[in-house]
Amino acid sequence: MEEYIDFLELKPHLKKRIGELSGGQKQRVALARTLVTKPRLLLLDEPLSALDGVIKESIKERIKLIAKEFKLTTIIVTHDPEEALTISDKILIINEGNISQFGTPSEIINQPSNEFVEEFILKQLLIA
Are residues 60 and 2 in the same domain? Predict the structure, then answer.
């Protein structure tokens, strides 16, 4: 447990009550509680949606480090194209229950497979 506390920089917050923790600190506590179980797969549903800019970037980097450090396959559900493109090795875009495209961030940006992908990713990010 100590390695997770250190890795997630939670030591200064161990004596705090849950109401005294910031959104980012709560996210890190949740990750630590999950990592203690030594999962092989980490599923995160909108892990960054309730966070502001600085905390969001910090948690995003921490998720990448956790996946690498603990050799975890990590699946992240998000509706934020920027999040998907910057945190993922591979992206699966689903539209109305059907796979619209599966590929690397570069493939998604440079070769959108259909109009939905173009609208959802490129136009939302103003890349096109």
Answer: yes
